[in-house]
């Protein structure tokens, strides 16, 4: 990050790298953040290419509108589900911002890398035209406040899904495993007794099928305690494109 005189008083401040986007917004790259989650390593995440100066870490990118408000944060995302870890990291390459997606299967020690274009036609900005990091962090905090309010609304939706599923579950029959299946009825996810009647139907399409499975599975311990019960995806829902956003 180059040091430049701030326009309001001549104070020397850090100026991060920045670009003008095609739609008029400003893209700003934050500082390098160390990467300490392995596997996968940084080179794997970026498709076998060098991860950057010394392979040191990843960077968060911020898209700012004309008013200086942050309306998109391209940050590194990591989550795990069962035996797989999912990583998304962003990097400016030439005049474009790319998302690098990496899925790592811990059971088989295998990974899969995909790269997708986020925005092209980036035009580098002179350091003095890039907002200082301190100003960006204030805008990020304001964005976080907006997202917390939106998350509260989303939590209400999740609670409604969980409550509707819990109310639809039957009594455990005892003496055996209660087998439930997440499958499709047309394009709508449903849960049925394995090979039997439909118990519950999804009323929204806010989640991938894999996310919905995890959400519904979390309800089972509260409903049945230690009682033997399993909820499995059917082949048709696993083969559907909405099973996994990287499928």
Give a short synopsis of this structure.
With 247 residues, the chain is an alpha+beta fold. It has helices at residues 42-45, 133-168, 209-217, 220-224, 235-238, and strands at residues 3-5, 12-14, 18-20, 26-34, 57-64, 70-74, 77-81, 84-93, 96-105, 110-119, 123-124, 178-185, 188-193, 198-201, 229-233.
Number of extended strands: 15
* Main β-sheet description: 5 strands, antiparallel
Subunit arrangement of the protein: single chain
Helix content: 10-25%
Order of strands across the biggest sheet?
6-5-4-3-11
Average pLDDT level? 83
N-end to C-end Cα span: 37 Å
Order of helix and strand elements from N to C terminus: EEEEHEEEEEEEHEEEHHEH
The low-confidence parts are 1-13, 51-55
Explain what you see.
Strand 8 and strand 9 (96-105) form a beta hairpin. The chain is an alpha+beta fold and 247 residues long. It contains five helices and 15 strands. The protein has helices spanning 42-45, 133-168, 209-217, 220-224, 235-238, and strands at residues 3-5, 12-14, 18-20, 26-34, 57-64, 70-74, 77-81, 84-93, 96-105, 110-119, 123-124, 178-185, 188-193, 198-201, 229-233.
């Amino acid at each position: 990050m180059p040091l430049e005189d701030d326009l309001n008083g001549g104070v020397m401040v850090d100026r991060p790298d920045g670009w003008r986007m095609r739609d008029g917004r400003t893209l700003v790259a934050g500082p390098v953040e160390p990467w300490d989650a392995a596997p996968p390593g940084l080179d794997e995440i970026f498709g076998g290419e060098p991860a950057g100066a010394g392979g040191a870490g990843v960077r968060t990118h911020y898209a700012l509108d004309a008013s200086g408000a942050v309306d998109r944060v391209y940050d590194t995302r990591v989550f795990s589900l069962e035996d797989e870890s999912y990583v998304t990291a962003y990097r400016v390459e030439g005049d474009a911002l790319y998302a690098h997606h990496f899925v790592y299967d811990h059971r088989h020690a295998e990974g899969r890398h995909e790269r997708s274009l986020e925005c092209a036609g980036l035009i580098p900005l002179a350091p003095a035209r890039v907002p200082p990091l301190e100003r960006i962090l204030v805008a990020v905090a304001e964005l976080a406040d907006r997202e917390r309010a939106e998350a509260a609304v989303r939590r209400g939706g999740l609670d409604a899904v969980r409550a509707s599923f819990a109310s639809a579950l039957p009594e455990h029959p005892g003496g055996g495993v209660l087998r439930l299946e997440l499958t499709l009825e047309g394009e709508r996810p449903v849960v049925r007794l394995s090979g039997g009647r439909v118990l519950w139907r999804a009323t929204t399409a806010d989640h991938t099928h894999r996310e919905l499975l995890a959400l519904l599975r979390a309800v089972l311990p509260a409903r049945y305690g230690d009682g033997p019960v399993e909820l499995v995806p059917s082949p048709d829902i696993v083969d559907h494109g909405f099973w996994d956003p990287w499928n």
